[in-house]
Design a protein that fits this description.
- This protein has 221 residues and is mostly helical.
- It folds into 2 domains: 60 residues; 149 residues, Hypothetical protein af1432 (Orthogonal Bundle).
- Helices cover 66% and strands 0% of the residues.
- The protein has 11 helices and no strands.
- Helix 5 packs across helix 8 and helix 10 packs antiparallel against helix 11.
- The two termini are 32 Å apart.
């Protein structure tokens, strides 16, 4: 709806620009203007007027024709990135980000949810996401919840990452990571949990304790 309103305003403003230039072109010259300078002055007025309106249009409506990055587009990207991937229980991995997406509220939050493992678990990069139109706000949140390429997997390193999310003040990243941890802590997803799984869930529990006071209210219930 907002995009439609912006487009209508852009068209109206453009018509106003054309009308203004047309008026300038038919205005009768003042008697004190020398004929030899008339064309130069008229063309200069039109050029300045046109340039001014183009600048204003750009500032006000530069996002009008920018491709809208939809949730549907994000789901397509995630499905392609996780194609043929399976989780520890042998189920299609895409079920996990879809679950995370459905637990979050808000378009940006849901987009971040469905994309949260794309860079970490596929060949896609943050630059690739930017090129296909993913908003910077969402990419910033995704960077916070994505392990770096040189991630060693130690508990200290992991907990430092959790604290970085908590201290970032990035609500999308905080809510996303909390829901991610909650889902990954569900041992019923595994047919035969091992001691390693139990230790992993304990690490997740500690992480959730750090994030829980910071999550959105709808996730605290």
């Amino acid at each position: 709806m907002k995009q439609t309103i912006r487009i209508i305003l852009f068209i109206l403003f453009s018509l106003l620009n054309i009308a203004g230039i047309s008026v300038l072109m038919i205005i009768q010259p003042q008697p004190w203007v020398s004929p030899e300078y008339l064309d130069i002055i008229t063309n200069l007025e039109i050029f300045i007027y046109f340039l001014l309106f183009i600048l204003i249009e750009y500032r006000l409506f530069k996002k009008v024709f920018r491709k809208n990055f939809t949730l549907k587009k994000a789901i397509e990207i995630a499905k392609n990135a996780h194609k043929e991937q399976v989780d520890k229980a042998g189920k299609l991995y895409i079920e996990h980000p879809l679950y995370i997406m459905n637990q979050l509220r808000g378009r940006e939050e849901k987009i971040a949810g469905i994309l949260h493992d794309v860079v970490e678990d596929s060949n896609m990069t943050f630059e690739d996401l930017r090129k296909v139109g993913c908003p910077v706000k969402i990419i910033t949140a995704l960077k916070l919840v994505t392990h770096p390429k040189d991630y060693k997997g130690t508990e200290d390193e992991y907990m430092n990452g959790i604290r970085a999310i908590a201290n970032s003040g990035n609500q999308i990243a905080i809510d996303l990571k909390f829901v991610d941890l909650t889902h990954n802590s569900d041992l019923s997803r595994l047919p035969k949990p091992t001691e390693k799984d139990l230790a992993r869930v304990e690490k997740y529990r500690k992480s959730m304790e750090i994030l829980k006071p910071l999550v959105s209210s709808y996730l605290k219930t």
